[in-house]
Amino acid sequence: MADIELRLDRLDHTPAAIARTAARDVRTVFPESTLISLEGRHPDPLFLAVMEHGNETVGWEALKKLQAWMAHHPLPRSMLILIGNVRAAELQSRMVPGRPDYNRIWTGGETPEHALAQQVLEIARAAKPFAAIDLHNNTGANPLYALVHKERAPDLQLTSLFAAHAMLTRNPPGTLSEAFSDFCPAITAECGQSGVAANETAAFNLVLDALHLDHWRGAADLELDLYTVTGRIEISPEARIVFEHGADGDVELPASLEKWNFFDRPAGSTFARVLNGGDVIRVRDDQGRDVTTDVFRREGDRLLLTRDFTPAMLTVNEAAIRADCLGYLMEKA
Ligand SMILES: [Zn+2]
Are 245 and 252 in contact (CB under 8 A)? Predict the structure, then answer.
């Protein structure tokens, strides 16, 4: 991987130009990744990350709403705001081709991106954050949900400010919110698909609610459906994926696959068809162990679920499947 130079810019205000700038033009305001420090009444800052993935615009739009709100309200709490992968945003893609995913660089690694993440982590850790929120969109259709990494009361309360569903997970490794969960309550807020106004409002409301929290009460605000991840579903790079019965391919999935997200799928139901044999669908647990035969059994060309599962993040977007995975299988925690 050819090395590039990455620098972290620092600001103590939000530039006015944010309001009239589209996410893809972010580099006209922030030429490089930028950490903005804002002073508020409570000194322990709320850390907010936007656009770790360049094509997920919800964080940028929430930042616009926050800036408009701040024009008329004093900040109840200090903030650290990270404007993440501006180069990927310019390309309107998850990440820059050939470069690391900005939501996988928060544990050890040798690239300039990993060094950038370490620099942000050091500054943030020293600031003793009240909480950390990383705003993301999903490729597939999902309800609002959070990724949470520790079953601690403050983390669950933070989750409950946002959604009734959460995945308790340490997978995939190297995510921002997991790294932050070592020293503060931290979640990834998965805000549904990009470009949906209601999702942007939900993200902004989460930030506003977290800013107004004076302290952690030690309980969630609503009853959470908390799931643990049994495995991440991967499809072999060479396998041809089809979403239509009878089409020529290696893996056949239903076109309505995304409708299964956060809905229970019973034991014995068909998940996929493997048309030409082979281990083209594999499921790995948090530790990377192959658990395919624990979750699927074969019946002819059909893959059936061995137990009741709740899928999440399933997508029919082939580019997303290839770059990341097909989705996850979860069980109630
Ligand atoms: Zn993302």
Answer: yes
Q: What number of CA atoms fall less than 13 Å from residue 231's CA on the CB side?
A: 20
CA of 83 to the centre of ligand 1 (A): 13
CA gap 61, 201 in Å, rounded: 9
Question: How remote is the CA of residue 56 from the centroid of ligand 1, in Å?
Answer: 6
Backbone phi and psi for residue 209, each to the nearest 5 degrees, phi listed first: -65, -45
182 C-alpha to ligand 1 centroid (Å) = 20
**Is 24 in the same domain as 123?**
yes
Alpha carbon of 136 to ligand 1 centroid (Å) = 4
Q: What is the mean pLDDT of residues 158-183?
A: 92
Q: How many domains does the chain have?
A: 2
For ligand 1, the distance from its centroid to the CA atom of residue 224, given in whole angstroms, is 22
What is the structure's pLDDT at 169? 85
Cis omega (within 30 of 0) on the bond before 237?
no
The pLDDT value given to residue 221: 66
In a domain, 115, yes or no: yes
Q: How far is the CA of 172 from the centre of ligand 1 (A)?
A: 12
Q: Does 223 have pLDDT greater than 90?
A: no
Are 237 and 213 members of one domain?
A: no
CA of 168 from ligand 1 middle (Å) equals 17
What domain range is 321 assigned to?
A: 230-332
Q: Identify the pLDDT of residue 287.
A: 86
By residue count, the chain amounts to 333
